[in-house]
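Good morning C.,

I know you're traveling, so I'll keep this short. The sequence:
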Amino acid sequence: MKTSKGIIGVLTLTLTLLFTGCAKDTPLNDDTEKTRPSLETEAPRQAQGKGTDGTAAEGGSESRNASSTPDLTEDNEDTAPALSEDALARIRSAADEYYASTNYKMLTFSQADPESPYRRPEYEEGYVPGETALFETSIENNRFQHYIAVGSRDGWNHCSVLYEVIPKDPDGEKMNIVKEHVAGAYPELSAAEQAQKAEELYQEKYIGLITPSEIAARQSAAQADRDYVNTAYENSLARDRYVVELISTHSGTETTAEAWEYNLDYLQLHYEELMALEDVNSAFVDLYISIYKAQLWYREYLASISGNGEAEVKIDLGVSSIYPKADMIAAIELIVKEFNTWDGCELHSISYASDEKCSASNVAWLNSLEAANDAEETFTQCIMFLSDYHSPKNSVGAWNRDFEYTDWQWWLARSDNGQWKLMSCGY
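The tokens, ready to paste straight into the viewer:
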């Protein structure tokens, strides 16, 4: 009986502990521990916050303190830096210069969301939070929105473009097509691997990226072109100034750059005397004579083609900040004389292309053509014209029969003090 009473006592004690709550000290197994928060605390936590009077809801303090949500301060990496109007003006100026270096004009400019998917933190190395900002831009003759990241290490006094992203599928409509392609082309990959592959292909095909190294190369080329333009323009001015001073000193009568016909006559009449002078710049004298003799030719040429009906030729010298019109006319003379050797072809127009064609990269290309012909001259300047003409009705050989050619390119080059040389023509 003692044994039975003992067993009954133990059972009674156990039942008492269970129903009085002492069992809460019993350790939970792993599954119970993991499940409890979602059953007892997760739903109430979502409802906690501020009451209607703006005070913290009862019992909400502990849950908020346990939250890992960071404060969005100006030092947070994903927060756009607060920029003053002066800083924004300097950033916009840097953006304008960047697009100008790529021969584009920026139309709109606004600060973008720092959490934009077009941000590329890997190209912002070396900058701390607050030293970079992303901007959304649009440019002339381009239908896509562009994103440029700009950085500054001195409080936005000086800034530079770090990289540019050009989304070519802004609505993401092409992603499903890419995913379907990957699923069909790579069935052996897992779902996660297919998703990664699709993202890589999508980025490659539909997200244009101009990296810092590419931007540096562009800006270097743009600076080279600016130096080239300045040099070409200064050389032309220096030549004309030299000749004016030379004639004024030698003749004892002041002349001007506008009196080019008098200057040309004087140089040709007193050429031997001038060449005998000590330290005379013969290259400038010879170039001046060549260029302004072309002016006389041009006057006669315009008279010959004026009012000839269908044979009339339209010539457009355009506007150039590099070459004076006299230098452009000297190039046109070579083009016309070459064209006149094309039997049966009828010239309709010649027009100056643009200053943009007169670049260091095009000079390098023309120098390569010169080197291929085993020539020794090194060009430093170039110019390009476009022409429209009609081929003969009975054409044979190089031309299409009875065909209107438009925007036919003529490329000429010269050294600093040299004369134009026709190097290439065609498309």
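Safe travels,
E.
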